[in-house]
Amino acid sequence: MAYRRTTAVAQRLADNRDQILAAARALIARGGFAAATIAAVAAEAGIATGTVYRYFPSKAELFAEVLRDAARRELAVLSETAAADGPPLARLDAVVSVFVTRAIRGQRLAHAMIAEPVDPTVEAERLVLREGYARILGALMDAAIAEGTIPPRNTEIAADCIVGAMIEPLIGPLAKGKVRKKTQADDLLAEIRRFVNAALRADTANANVLDFPKGEF
User: Fold this and answer.
1) Helix (H, G, I), strand (E, B) or coil at 32
2) Which of 86, 65, 71, 214 is nearest to 149 (CA)?
3) 22-27 long-range contacts, Cβ below 8 Å, gap at least 24?
């Protein structure tokens, strides 16, 4: 007779998996990916080390799932922000503000999610997350162009540029939890918002193409 997994067993397995992910996330939030060894995750979750490996054969697979889970949460928040009432540019500014504010509030976890050196498996999930940010921003830019608020442009490329403008200024300050004062957080957010808004409104249609020297990088 084939073994049938009962509802109770399936729920217990799901609970164990969720417990492992919650423990890994908590450790990463305190000390980055480096702090979330399999032994530490098991201890945090109150289970045996071998149990962790039953669900996640490698640390890279565990970290990738933690990042996927965090990505779902972050993209849901930003999607909700983008869908609010108001002009497209105001909503785009709100998306940038929410992203930066949440990153500052969860500095160690945010730095791990966006910049800490990781296995290629985890890096692939990080790229998926960035693509999700770009889709949200690109849709808002398309809407702003349609209503004539900003000049026409390639919004796929422009959205990637805005993602970079949101993330890059955070990497250094978040690396060791350096944003400790409200004034620091306010200044960081204000400059990112100012840069993004200026970039969106710039019209480069008639800009001269630079005469690059021959050769390669």
Assistant:
1) coil
2) 86
3) 24/62, 24/63, 24/66, 25/66, 25/69, 25/70, 25/109
Cα 167–Cα 171–Cα 174 angle in degrees, nearest 5: 115
| Backbone φ and ψ of 213, nearest 5° | -70, 155
What domains lie within the chain, and their CATH numbers? Answer: 8-57 (1.10.10), 63-201 (1.10.357.10)
- Tokens read off for 108: 């160690």
The alpha-helical segments, DSSP class H, found in the chain are: 7-31, 38-45, 49-55, 59-82, 88-105, 107-114, 120-146, 155-175, 182-201
Q: Please answer whether residues 94 and 81 qualify as being in contact, where contact means their C-beta atoms are separated by less than 8 angstroms.
A: yes
User: What is the pLDDT at residue 5?
Assistant: 57
Instruction: For residues 111 and 113, give the distance between their C-alpha atoms in angstroms, rounded to a whole number.
Output: 5
State CA 78 to chain mean position distance.
10
Q: pLDDT in tens for each of the 217 residues of the chain? A: 455 557 755 566 678 899 999 999 999 999 999 999 999 999 999 999 999 999 999 999 999 999 999 999 999 999 999 999 999 999 999 999 999 999 999 999 999 999 999 999 999 999 999 999 999 999 999 999 999 999 999 999 999 999 999 999 999 998 866 777 888 899 999 999 999 999 999 876 655 555 556 666 5
